[in-house]
Amino acid sequence: MILFRANSTSSIYVRLLFSMVALCLLITFGSCSDDDAPAEITPNPDSEIYFTGSLDFTSDSGEAILSFTTNKDWSIDVSQSGGDVSWCTVFPNKGKAGESQVSVRVARNEGVDDRNVVLNLTAGDLTKSIVVTQKQKDAITLTTAKFEVDKNGGEIQVEVKANVSYEVVIPEQYQSWIREGSGSGQIIMGDKGHNQMHEPATRTDMDRTVRKFYISKSEEYDKREGEIIFRSGELEEVLKVYQTGGGILLLTKNEYTVSDKGEQIVVELNSNFDFDVKMPQVDWITTTATRSVSSHTLYYTIAPNGTYGKREAEIIYYDRNDKSVADTLKIIQVQKDAIMLSQKEYSVGMEGGTIRIEIKANVAYETFIPEQYRGWIHKGTSTRGLSTSNLSFIIDKNNEYNKREGEIIFQNGKQKEVLKVCQAERAFLNLIKNEYTISDEGGRIAVELNSNFDFDVRMPQVDWITVTTTRSVSTHTLYYMIAPNEAYNKREAKIIYYNRNNEGLADTLNVVQQGKSVLELTLETAGSLKRKMEILNIDYLKVKKIVLEGDINGSDIRLIREMAGVNYIEKETNGVLEYLDLTNVNIVEGGEIYCYPDSYKPGTLDKYEDCYTKNNVIGNCMFRKCKSLKKVLLPYSCVKIENESFAYCKNLIEVKLFDNVATIGGFCFYSCSLLQKINLPNSIKMIGDSTFSNGSTFSGCSSLESIDLPDKITCIHANSFSYCSSLKEIVIPKSVTYIEGYAFAYCSNLKSIIVSDSVTGFPETTFYDCTSLEKIIFGTGLKTGGVFWDSKYIKEIHCRSTIPPSIIGFNNEVYNNATLYVPKGCNEAYHTAIMWREFKTIVEE
Fold first, then answer.
1. Residues 321, 442 within the same domain
2. How would residue 135 be classed by pLDDT, with cut points 50, 70 and 90?
3. The CATH number of the domain where 672 resides is what?
4. Which of 282, 292, 369, 395 is nearest to 331 (CA)?
5. 493: Cβ–Cβ under 8 A, 6 or more apart, which residues?
6. CA torsion angle 322 327 330 331 (round to 10)
7. Do 538 and 652 lie in a common domain?
8. How far apart are CA 472 and CA 182, in angstroms?
9. 451 with 476, same domain?
């Protein structure tokens, strides 16, 4: 709070200004008239359904009549918020009070989307809206009319939009290479749902589905084409599929190792065209036979190698029309005294198994497996001939998620051959996170999944989860759109990711969506809250936020207490209610006892009576010990808050009161340690109960930093704000005449006190142990006051009484360091007064 210091002349001007403002406000309020009748729009019986429901047209043009009666002049217009609304017109568009008719006309809808507009009928300050809707024209549309696929084939996807049921037809002549894939036909998002979120002026019933088709690999040389038909009666759309052809040229073996003795090798090659052969420029390879048909066997003679080094050459087979279609045969001839392996590298699946290798050697050799590979590569059986050996090796199953490589070495002195063994990794699939919890508002979730194979997805049979993106690579991020949950209960669904070849290899995602977060209920009769929730199938112990309207009685309060964590005999429940809005509620007599308090009345040895509701009263202990409450809006009709009504609400943060409240009882917010915000309207005349030995209304509210006291209270009762350790400033209103003991005791962060001129006194304990006080202003009417021995950091004291009041005393450090400000001409009076004369610095102001 900002404080202004003014001399006596300026105070007169300020008071005069306040009086003028108050007079203006009274004149303004007095000028308001209540004579104007409220505007009314009453639909005639034949048009009432248009106001409560909607005005619906087919796709053809049409006309309808709205009939209604008003007590004021009226106008009607077509809302422009939704884009083009020229298809809907009204006539007339305005008129006088009384019974009227309006013609609503719509043009023929040639689009494939439903459409709607809103008509706003206004009379005076009252507006009613009529929704006009028109059906769409039947259609099937494709996102593309053709696909071009390379010769390797694969999967194609086309998105189909349709507002009619249709069938997919693949003509018989194309069925050998075009077929519909698994998972085809999944609805990915109704345009209706999409447009409700993003385009409120247009509505469509077009369903969007993804159709998947598998195109087989082409072994034809020429291009081929086919078609897929989407048909509904006489309505059809055709998707053209074009697949390129190409040459196929494949050697059954790409490498031959020949001994230094030379030999004839047989080369087998498959092709769907006549190919050319490019021979190497060497003299040790000659052709002994050639053929040029689809399946080939070619013979080559390899001359003996008389050198000590190996030699290599390549023969290239190619398409004369497309030289990119080619395959290469590599011939390696070893030198004399060689060890030759039939194969230099083996690839093994993760399950392991036995590999067999043929070795040709004209020297003795040793076989050994390096130590680092002996854990998973083992020797098997072997047979040996005159110059050829057949060895087998056993490869263990790979239980790791990474592929591995090993070696087997065949060696004779410095001469050696190495066989490389490559084993595939163990297949894996795992979700980074197996469960997502979504608010009732919905939204998009990103699901991360790791896999080393292409997986399939099994979606749940629900309409509130839709796919927005899918990918099929080693690391995946998949996106799903979660629709808003309009129900009050949560809902769950599971998405399964699995290996199409082994469904046992799978992982499951659980999607949980919370129910509607704020429960809004209107009660037709008092005492019906529990039955209302049973009809709606709502678990009241799981409701976090509730807004109520209508009359409630003791039975309803009893249920609200259970929802907020405590029952009527003050035993804890599992309720989680945090937000309670009773603004439009009327508390009425009747119903069950809502509380049997388990303690005595504050300051007495008397037990509380059984607690029943009273009209427009927050009764004794009504919400006491409601542990989960955080924010409460009290009824507008409430006139009184009785004793301990919110005591021990340990999580209460905010309370809102309205201007009808006149009294707040003792211990009302006692020990609400998290209370930070509460408004005290000027209608309040009493805080605390004068019949108790101490009021303690806000005692223990240790998070309360500020409070504006109402200007109609006359006394601040004992302990009213004791232990409010976060309170920083107190301004005593001018209506208060006395402050009782311990009213602000133990307010350890209180820095400033302003005592109004109307206060005549306070006892010695009123500001007990306020250790952080820095500034005090005593009003002109103060005659007696307490002690400030614990407040040693006071820097300034303003005492505005011309007669020094009787104060018990201050800390010695205050006498030495603080400045005492007194009225002009009163320096001598304070210099000679008991206690005041101890101040070393006294300044007139």
1. no
2. confident
3. 3.80.10.10
4. 282
5. 460, 462, 464, 465, 510, 511
6. -90
7. yes
8. 15
9. yes
The answer to whether residue 826 sits within a structural domain is: yes
- The answer, yes or no, to whether residue 472 has pLDDT greater than 60, is no
Segment 214-263, tens digit of pLDDT = 999 888 878 899 999 999 888 888 999 998 887 788 888 899 999 888 89
Q: Which pair of tokens denotes residue 465? A: 């989860």
Q: Rounded CA gap, 495 and 28, in Å?
A: 65
Question: Which of 333, 356, 388 is the last residue before a domain boundary?
Answer: 333
Cα dihedral 123, 124, 128, 130, rounded to 10, equals: 40
pLDDT band at 145 (very low <50, low <70, confident <90, very high): confident
Say if 461 falls within a structural domain: yes
Q: DSSP 3-state assignment of 456?
A: strand
> Looking at the DSSP assignment, which residues form a beta bridge with residue 419?
408
**Structure confidence by residue, pLDDT tens digits, 288-309:** 865 444 457 888 999 998 876 7
* Token pair 């505007």 in the structure block, residue: 39
The one-letter code for the residue type at 622 is M
Question: Are residue 669 and residue 548 in the same domain, yes or no?
Answer: yes
More confident residue, 23 or 285: 285
Instruction: Provide the CB-side half-sphere exposure for 67 (13 A, CA).
Output: 5
Domain extent for 325: 249-333
Q: Are residues 681 and 776 in the same domain?
A: no
Question: Domain boundary at 289, 304, 333, which?
Answer: 333
Q: Are residues 754 and 828 in the same domain?
A: yes
- Please say if the pLDDT value at position 469 is more than 70: no
Q: For residue 449, which of 506, 511, 402 has the smallest C-alpha distance?
A: 506
Q: What's 113's domain CATH number?
A: 2.60.40.10
DSSP annotation of 22 reads H
Determine, yes or no, domain membership for 714. Answer: no
Q: Which amino acid, one-letter code, is at 471?
A: R
Number of domains within the chain: 7
Distance CA 465, CA 471 (A): 17
**What is the Cα–Cα distance from 541 to 566, expressed in whole angstroms?**
11
Query: In 495-566, where does DSSP find H-type helix?
Result: 529-535, 554-563
- Per-residue pLDDT for 623 more than 90? yes
- Asked if 680 and 668 count as a contact pair (C-beta separation under 8 A), the reply is no
Distance CA 190, CA 572 (A): 46
Contacts for 574 with CB less than 8 Å, ≥ 6 apart: 541, 565
Closest CA to 672 of 694, 656, 690, 650: 650
What one-character DSSP code corresponds to residue 489? S
Please state the three-class secondary structure of 336-388 as a single string. Answer: CCCEEECCCEEEECCCCEEEEEEEEECCCCEEECCHHHCCCEEEEEEEECCCE
Residue 759: predicted pLDDT: 96
Phi, psi (degrees; rounded to nearest 5) at 181: -85, 170
28's enclosing H/E stretch is helix 8-30
> How far, in Å, CA of 223 to CA of 275, rounded?
19
DSSP letters along 277-288, please? EE--S-SSEEEE
Claim to verify: residue 550 and residue 678 sit in the same structural domain: yes
Is 22 inside any structural domain?
no
SS (H, E, C) 654-677: EEECCCCCCEECCCCCCCCCCCCE
Its pTM stands at: 0.48
Sign of the dihedral defined by the CA atoms of residues 41, 43, 48, 53, in that order: negative
Q: Is the peptide bond before 92 cis (omega within 30 degrees of 0)?
A: yes
Q: Say if residues 551 and 588 touch (Cβ distance below 8 Å).
A: yes
The residue whose two tokens read 């309720």 is: 575
Helix (H) or strand (E) holding 11: helix 8-30
Task: Say which range, 163-177, 349-363, 535-549, has the weakest mean pLDDT.
Answer: 349-363
Beta bridge partners of 477: 448
User: Cβ(113)–Cβ(191) under 8 Å?
Assistant: yes
231 and 265 in a single domain? The answer is no
